[in-house]
Design goal:
It is a single chain. The protein is α/β, with parallel strands linked by helices and 323 residues long. 20% of the residues lie in helices and 19% in strands. A 7-stranded mixed beta sheet has the order 1-3-2-4-5-6-7, with helices on both faces. The protein has a two-stranded antiparallel sheet with strand order 8-9. Strand 2, helix 1 and strand 3 form a beta-alpha-beta unit. Helix 3 crosses helix 4.
């Protein structure tokens, strides 16, 4: 098969890596699954994602990894079968993570702490990699009478393809809740209310799947936003979305810096009531907390403003000790 210019199709998948050239220590790495064949993260104004420049400014290395494209797509752009994710994505993305670990010393990367982001068509990669038991699992689909994924031996054997934390939003991966398991890595999930691919309609089902497994997750139902990464001020949670996702990843990827635990979000379940004294209060921590340090009435107290008296209640521990 050839391209429009008559040259053979390019079957290669690539990645770009930004890393400190004169690092005095190894740094964690965050990667993003490219959703454009050019791999440019900011190819057009509507796809401007400053989040990853933000990570490099916070002391991370950054990798931009090719989506598992149908190679025809690089030359003819979109058509119904633009992606090979369902048939070869698992092997493609695990190979990419093994490559990073195999060359971690060259990039000053601390291979113990790798976090991944997947948005839109890129979310499937993070959906599969976030299950630590993904090694040996099968691809989502296979072609008739063909092997399960790439038949050749996989590159860089002996290196792990596991990740430490993940982000997923509005893609075919987020719709496949069967891959959410009880030992899932800490995860941020997000969906815009005005997503033009109608992911908002299945958002409750996605959140329910994480809740059912009681995994460590942070859910962003972004009112007023579309098919975008989290940014701006969240009126419901009273937090800055952009800052919050970076703080979430810091807690799981900068472990060696011994950061103090972080209170990510505090919410009152019924914020429309004037008298909220009996309304449940939720506190979302990162990372996983020593439960007794929160519940023994010395770690966290709820104080009534008007008389400075403690409001008594009971604790319910959820999301692997983070909520």
């Amino acid at each position: 098969m050839t391209a429009l210019n008559g040259k053979p199709l390019d079957y290669k998948v690539r990645m770009d890596i930004v890393y400190p050239s004169q690092a005095n220590k190894k740094v964690p790495l965050v990667f993003y699954i490219a959703t454009r064949t050019t791999r440019y993260p900011n190819h057009i104004p509507t796809a401007y994602y400053p989040h990853f420049i933000g990570f490099t400014m916070r002391g991370y290395a950054y990798a931009l990894i090719d989506h598992c494209w149908n190679p025809v797509c690089r030359h003819y752009w979109y058509f119904p079968r633009y992606s090979l994710d369902d048939w070869n994505g698992l092997k493609s993305y695990t190979a990419a993570i093994r490559y990073i670990r195999a060359h971690a010393d060259s990039f000053s990367v601390n291979s113990h702490y790798i976090g991944g982001w997947g948005h839109s068509k890129g979310s499937y990669a993070i959906t599969r990699l976030s299950d630590p038991d993904h090694v040996g699992q099968k691809e989502y689909s296979k072609f008739r009478d063909q092997s399960d994924g790439t038949p050749e031996p996989q590159p860089w054997p002996g290196y792990s393809s596991q990740i430490t934390a993940g982000y997923q939003s509005m893609g075919n991966g987020t719709r496949r809740t069967r891959y959410v398991t009880k030992n899932y890595v800490p995860t941020v999930i997000a969906c815009g209310e005005n997503d033009h691919y109608n992911h908002w309609a299945v958002w409750p089902r996605l959140v329910a799947a994480y809740k059912k497994q009681d995994v460590n997750y942070l859910a962003f139902g972004m009112l007023g936003m579309g098919h975008e990464l989290p940014y701006g001020f969240d009126e419901d949670r009273r937090v800055d979305r952009y800052s919050l996702v970076h703080e979430f990843f810091d807690q799981y990827l900068k472990v060696e810096e011994q950061l103090p635990p972080k209170v990510l979000v505090v919410t009152v379940s019924d914020n429309k009531r004037k008298d909220q004294i009996n309304a449940p209060i939720s506190i979302h921590f990162a990372p996983v907390m020593d439960i007794q340090s929160v519940t023994d009435r010395r770690g966290v107290k709820i104080i009534r403003v008007r008389d400075q008296k403690e409001i008594k209640g009971k604790w319910e521990i959820l999301r692997n000790g983070t909520f």
